[in-house]
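Hi support team,

I submitted a single chain yesterday and got back a structure, but I'm not sure I'm reading the token output correctly. Could someone confirm the output below corresponds to the sequence I sent? I've pasted both exactly as they appear in my results page.

Thanks,
R.
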Amino acid sequence: MNKILFIIVTSILYFNSIAIADVYVQPAETILNENVKIKAGNYVYYKFTLNEEEQLKINILVNGGLNNIIDVRLVDMHNFQMYTSNQQYSYISSVSGSVQKTGNYDFIAPKTNIYYLILDNRKALFAFRNVDIKVVKISNNQTESSLNIQKEYENNYNGLKKIFTFNDFNINVKVCGFENAFSNPDITMCIELIDSLKKQNLSKAINFVFLHEVSHSLLNIWGYPTYDNEDVADELATVLTIMAGHEDVALEAAEYWSEQLSKTSAISKLYIDDRHTISPQRARNIINWLNKKPELISRWVNLLLPKMTNQSLKQIAKNKNIQKNNPFLQEIERRKLLKEWDNKS
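Hi R., thanks for writing in. Yes, this is the structure output for that exact sequence:
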């Protein structure tokens, strides 16, 4: 059965399809993501060249000393020169101050200039500060990277439309301020999560996260009561990877979740509205489904068949090795009887 599903995808994707959906990718790029140790009496700085109205989103985590405090200053080029020469200078007050433990800043450049973000530990006499700093730049216009990502999601969406019938939903890839992805049924993929997975060399897991949200959206649009069940979404996402012949996508997602500590995962659920199964169990579920593909597919075939396009079923019917009692052929006959079959579609 899973071989038939693979034939659907590999053959159908060669046909053109027009989908009506909005895929928006925010032109955002992580331009700084590092940990720095700042000795007492010292400072570090980072330089950013910004056009007018370009944005920076800055996240700072501080650890060290008695109070876990670091002084933060954002200045333009002129005032940076004044700062480094120990002269009186001005700073941008909305992105400056003393950060204790955590600090988040949003900055929109009032004019094109070179800006400097300063982390200042000169008030400390003995203690160093460990600082995790992440800066995301949001450009005014689409970048080559954002356009490529947009094209990738458009292709994924069009592939789904060639296989299944469903009312359109939109896809947004943007900065969220946290690592997550969600569906309502429009899908949001947070750039923070995408960056985190890429940093761990788990780019394929990003695709599984997307298919997980797709599963929520499809089940929601189709009116199934289990659409918000996280384990059900994981199971359908695994089915979709099998259909596409990319079980490695599901395996990499399992690898990612298997490395998340159960205790850490459980504690996080106390503070975050997260209905997902604890991460190691999610990994075990995926591995179990991949090792029982016939059983997995048989559970989903009756649900998915009525939602498949005529075009996808026709590709299956062309397979000379398909048996007459195959459920896909039975679905074609059912549609013919109900006059839901168009030989031209």
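A quick pointer for reading it: Residues 28-138 form a domain with the Jelly Rolls fold (CATH 2.60.120.680). Let us know if anything else looks off.

Best,
Support desk
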